[in-house]
Amino acid sequence: MTRAELGAEVAGTAAELHRLGLRPGDVVGVTIGDDCHHLIVSLALMRLGCPHLVLPTYEPVPYREELARRVGAVAVIAQSADAGFDGIPSVLAPELPAAGAAAQSALPPLPGNDVVCTYIASSGSTGLPKLVPLTHSQLFLQSVAFHGAGQAETYFRPASIEFNNSKRQRLYVLATGGANVFADANREQAIETCRRHAVTLFAPGHARAQAMAEREGGLTAPLPAETELRLDGAPVSRQLRQGIIAKLTARLNVTYGATEAGSIASAGPDMHEIDPDIVGLARPGIELAVVDYDGRPVPDGATGDVRLRGDAVVTDYANDREASARAFRNGWFYPGDRGRLLDGRYLCVEGRADGMMNLATINVYPAEIERVVRALPGVVECAAFSVSLPGFGDVPLVAVVARPPATEQGILGEARAHLGLRAPRKVFLVDSLPRNAVGKVARAELADFVKPAQR
Amino acid sequence: MSPQSGHNLTQIVAEAIVQCGLVLEGVDDPSDTEAVMARSFLELGFDSLNLMEFCIAISLETGIDLDVGKLETLRTPAAVVEFLAKRT
Predict the structure, then answer these.
(1) Residue B1 within a domain
(2) Going by fewer Cβ within 10 Å, which terminus of chain A is more open, N or C?
């Protein structure tokens, strides 16, 4: 699809949604699993000036309903007529091609740059997802930081557009004049897809990258010379970096980012041996610092809290003053990561300050699991924790002190229904939770519940 | 966990498939373990998310690392049972 064809589809879809009653400023949920259809509807809403929020089809309906209510959605655009959201009208997504509809309805003026174009749900440390409001100008500035000015990439990420990073980065690509490749592919097909479509930026995700780099019984075909492999969203071990460089490409770029800021730093091919935790240099427009508890910069090489600022960085969360006050302080954004600066410029990220888990690039906070499990009948108390599995990251688990009628399977099922992919994968029914001298749950000891065979 | 017999491993793999929560394709009776084991993950309707869940369930239950890339080689649940048997 050319940009002109895409523009016509977006205009047609916008006209149809306008005809159906959507107006600038209306907040809209989007629950469409098909990548291309989802993207076109999202762009149409952005054209109309309707901020939208992804309500992933892979998440349970109650979770999507809660998100839609929290953001104040007046409607939900769905791909099927039977998508029911309690109390929120559903709008059937206009069928494609919708190009012809553009001529039939006058569109409102283009929205201003400072208008919110999308809300992005990011897992919340308090147990509720944080809603990150992104304006048109912030989206564009994040796009430039992601690609570099003047870069028009051909981008391939074999993951659903309903995932946060996947959605944002596809919008970045369009904002900077690039092209998106949509294809589901195993590792060999992925390499062939890169070759066939002259992909310049391939973002396979950690699990796929690891599978490609660790192939047994022979060498994986290398990526085409023009293809850069980019990994983001979770720490990348030195072993994985070396495996990718040895078997796939020397053009490996490890990127550190946040929903609130887009790309924050990136480490190119010449940086991977500097430090095992290196995520590289600040991206254009981002000012980075590592500070102590009082906000004073720590000495070079010392560990502290990472903070950053820049025009692409959002300044608060929607409808969450408590989380906003914690993350946005004195003009800086604190992503909640611990790190070091080397030579005053190379950022190394050591991990989270708040126990956040990272399951296949999906952020999961213990608090959101505990909030759901604690509310179940028979549950006395609980504590979420994780084990690390190669290729997947932190797998969430939960230890529960419970009485009848609570059961392991019942808790698993309810957690799955409310949390979807962020649900614990195993429940440990225990007599009591380990506590430290002041009575707080000793989280480091929770892993002892996992039998050696279970790690 | 003590070394597992072939029967136990078959049970673990079958339960891991159930935990993925998908409606199995290509089999008349999803409780027919033998039929399910012989089909490829692709034929059973697994997508990338289901495969991830399957690997996590197996790894948690057995302590043996299994990644999605490995499943591309093993292809069927029966082959996973054989793979696990060699490592217990």
Answers:
(1) no
(2) N
